[in-house]
From TrEMBL, chains A, B:
GO molecular function list: hydrolase activity, acting on acid halide bonds, in C-halide compounds
Any matching Pfam family: Hydrolase
UniProt protein name: Haloacid dehalogenase, type II
Keyword annotations: Hydrolase
Record flagged with keyword Magnesium: no
Lineage: Bacteria, Bacillati, Actinomycetota, Actinomycetes, Glycomycetales
InterPro entries documented for this protein: 2-HAD, HAD-like_sf, HAD-SF_hydro_IA, HAD_sf, S-2-haloacid_dehalogenase
Record carries keyword Hydrolase: yes
Organism expressing this protein natively: Stackebrandtia nassauensis (strain DSM 44728 / CIP 108903 / NRRL B-16338 / NBRC 102104 / LLR-40K-21)
Amino acid sequence: MLSRADIDLVVFDVLGTLVNEPGGIRDGIRELAPDGDIDGLAELWENHVARRQQRMLDGRDPYADSETVDREAAELVADKCGVTDAAAIGRLATVERRLEPWSDTVAGLELLARQFPIVGLSNASRATLTRLSAKAGLRWHFLLSAQDANSYKPAAEVYRLAVDLAGSAPQRVLKVAAHAWDLRAAQEVGLRTAYVPRPVGDPPRDSDAFDLHAASLADLAATLGDD
Amino acid sequence: MLSRADIDLVVFDVLGTLVNEPGGIRDGIRELAPDGDIDGLAELWENHVARRQQRMLDGRDPYADSETVDREAAELVADKCGVTDAAAIGRLATVERRLEPWSDTVAGLELLARQFPIVGLSNASRATLTRLSAKAGLRWHFLLSAQDANSYKPAAEVYRLAVDLAGSAPQRVLKVAAHAWDLRAAQEVGLRTAYVPRPVGDPPRDSDAFDLHAASLADLAATLGDD
């Protein structure tokens, strides 16, 4: 069983794991187009972001940060709804700065911060992470953006940013996420993994073997504290 | 008078302003050489760091991060004292990871974090900042290391990291420090400035004109909150 003494640093996924990203995107779209097909427009947004990140990971597109990609997605959504108000589109483009934390996030980070260096590692840009952290009340010992590697998760070099920061062996770094795909990629680089379920996460398959499954961040802190 | 509505982001110097750097270095040296000339050895350390940073800023030395320079300083001090114990020298080399916060630091950052995005901007390396923040209980919305610019304060490009992160005009970014030299350099780049006195700081001269002089971080939060 993994315990406190095995871990030098805890790295958190942010979007989806600590804040409600899909809910926030839907709220932003609803603000722009109250009578629109919110789920369909959110799918348009999410597909655009996924496709653009994949094209960058495949080397077909040059790197662009998350703010650039979010702006493109906001423009696509606005186009689809026939909205042309630049201020409204600009507000949707920055929706990730205003995502809401899950109910256990702020207290859970506080608990874990007493036990470990806590670091965020996110596909969001540095500027977005700063505003999002301030708005949602997430406070860190350090923050890494995939922008630091000019790439996106699940690329291995993004997880290596955390290993380099820790200055430890990868197996002494614990990655926490609500997305099995994110934990699998962290595992490939040698990190330890903790899955935390969220309503919008990507649950593990039978074939996954993560080090910990915690019901919440408080549960994770309690589990790691018992050593 | 500068007030809350004028500022998008607050940037803090860390070493000296939030944690007692000279005191921590002296404690580390005392641990290595209890009977040594602590002030003389601390001067040796501080002069080495200052000279190395200056040589890098002048382009005479290639960039090396703060951990590398601290290790050189620790070896110089050990040499001077005739200490050869590698573990003891290694512990002194990482002394900046264990600096103590000033008494108002943790609560003051907490107060300011409710009002603004709070960002650290330090000459310490990213790895040192992570460990130091965890040990001293400093928690951030983002952290910038001069290492991100392969340089050191007072080089202008280090302050520009904060302006880029804010995505605002420089005059909407407030720099907080106990060192007048640091505030002067921030001013050159257009940032607003707040001086907070510390026993080990660099006080303003009559010719300095900083935007705010606060007695403590709590005083700074109260002053900025009145708008």
